[in-house]
């Protein structure tokens, strides 16, 4: 019919316009003052991300009470987020301040995309493993061995980084080629690779985290208001785990879901040769995802008293610092260390 013909013609015309505009994709230019403001803002995000995740690594390494296998995952998460801030964000800032134009050549474009995908995927996958770890620690505290077994936890962390590598390596092995044309540096838009990479890097971890949150929440609901004194600690622990994981999942979804929806849909709308999505929209959603690396250390510090007190101790002026005994207890400023000799 005439209506169907008009619909097909309009759809075809829309795709042609997307792909033709994609080939001549303009960079975006901002007034000088806007460049300065955006540059300072992005530099502050990067600096705070570095500071927060560095504090996590130092805290777990320095404080004996925090040197537990269950906290190895926090160190892995902090290292992944720290890597995003150090080896990825600076190049993205330069690209954004030059109107979205890639200035570092084709070879480094491939290296940069590999670092970006590797670090972001490792961060997301570690959040997924942390949710499983918290669930097992709450529901099987006596039979879950990974919390007491550092070697098993180290193997889990190694598995996370190997999965991240499985997404990074295909463009180097001939499966899918990254896009580098006319000042554009873009991850491969191959249909199969896009579905594989977004599913493994985001959708599957997101599903696992939602399932773990639901199970912890259900376990906390089943416990109900504690009526017996011996159940109070169990009830509080399950409630805290449900709240913590709920915040983690919520922040994670807000930060990364818009970006991955765009990344999944882009090749089906624009084709596999480039991107027809407005650069400003891509960059906003990308930085929203990067913001997850900024917020992770502060989320865990908010819900972890030991981590929070260690942060305060590390940031306090040297003369006002508290003292940590050999058994991991913290002595307030002005008090003397207790000796057992």
Number of beta-strand segments: 4
Q: What is the topology, as strand order, of the major beta sheet?
A: 1-2
Q: Could you state the CATH homologous superfamily?
A: Rhodopsin 7-helix transmembrane proteins
CATH hierarchy, class: Mainly Alpha
Q: What separation lies between the terminal Cα atoms?
A: 95 Å
Helix content: over 70%
User: Measured on Cα atoms, how large is the radius of gyration?
Assistant: 24 Å
Q: How is the CATH topology named?
A: Rhopdopsin 7-helix transmembrane proteins
Question: So how many helices?
Answer: 9
* Biggest sheet features: 2 strands, antiparallel
Structural class: mainly alpha
Mean pLDDT: 81
| Range of strand content | under 5%
Q: In the residues, how many domains can be counted? A: 1
- The SSE string, one letter per element, is HHHHHEEHHHHEE
Q: Give the overall form.
A: globular
CATH architecture level-2 label = Up-down Bundle
Low-confidence stretches: 2-21, 337-341
Question: Can you describe what's shown?
Answer:
The protein is 72% helix and 3% strand. Helix 3 (69-97) runs antiparallel to helix 4 and helix 4 runs parallel beside helix 6 (191-223). Residues 2-21 and 337-341 have low confidence and may be disordered. The N and C termini lie far apart (95 Å). It has one domain: Rhodopsin 7-helix transmembrane proteins (Rhopdopsin 7-helix transmembrane proteins, Up-down Bundle). A hairpin with a 2-residue loop joins strand 1 and strand 2 (184-186). The chain is globular, with a radius of gyration of 24 Å. It has 341 residues and is mostly helical. It has helices at residues 2-23, 32-62, 69-97, 105-139, 150-168, 191-223, 232-270, 279-303, 305-315; strands at 179-181, 184-186, 323-324, 330-331. The strands form 2 sheets. Strands 1-2 form a two-stranded antiparallel sheet. It has a two-stranded antiparallel ribbon with strand order 3-4.
């Amino acid at each position: 019919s005439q209506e169907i013909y008009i619909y097909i013609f309009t759809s075809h015309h829309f795709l042609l316009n997307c792909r033709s505009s994609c080939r001549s994709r303009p960079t975006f230019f901002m007034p000088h003052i806007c460049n300065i403001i955006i540059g300072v803002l992005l530099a502050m995000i990067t600096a705070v991300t570095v500071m927060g995740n560095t504090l996590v690594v130092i805290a777990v390494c320095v404080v004996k009470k925090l040197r537990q296998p269950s906290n190895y995952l926090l160190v892995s998460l902090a290292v992944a987020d720290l890597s995003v801030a150090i080896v990825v964000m600076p190049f993205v800032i330069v690209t954004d301040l030059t109107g979205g134009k890639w200035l570092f050549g084709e070879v480094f474009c491939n290296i940069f995309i590999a670092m970006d995908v590797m670090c972001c995927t490792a961060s997301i996958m570690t959040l997924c493993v942390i949710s499983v770890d918290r669930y097992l620690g709450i529901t099987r505290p006596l039979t879950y061995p990974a919390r007491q077994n550092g070697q098993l936890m180290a193997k889990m962390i190694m598995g996370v980084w190997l999965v991240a590598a499985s997404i990074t390596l295909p463009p180097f092995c001939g499966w899918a080629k990254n896009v580098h044309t006319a000042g554009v540096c873009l991850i491969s838009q191959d249909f199969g690779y896009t579905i594989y990479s977004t599913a493994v890097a985001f959708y599957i971890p997101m599903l696992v985290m939602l399932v773990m949150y639901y199970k912890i929440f259900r376990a906390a609901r089943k416990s109900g208001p504690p009526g017996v004194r011996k159940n109070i600690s169990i009830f509080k622990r399950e409630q805290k785990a449900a709240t913590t994981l709920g915040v983690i999942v919520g922040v994670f979804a807000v930060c990364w879901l818009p970006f991955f929806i765009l990344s999944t849909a882009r090749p089906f709308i624009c084709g596999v040769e480039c991107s027809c999505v407005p650069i400003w929209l891509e960059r906003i959603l990308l930085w929203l995802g990067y913001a997850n690396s900024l917020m992770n250390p502060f989320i865990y510090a908010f819900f972890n008293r030991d981590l929070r007190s260690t942060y305060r101790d590390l940031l306090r002026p040297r003369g006002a610092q508290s003292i940590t005994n050999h058994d991991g207890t913290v002595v307030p400023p002005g008090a003397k260390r207790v000796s057992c000799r």
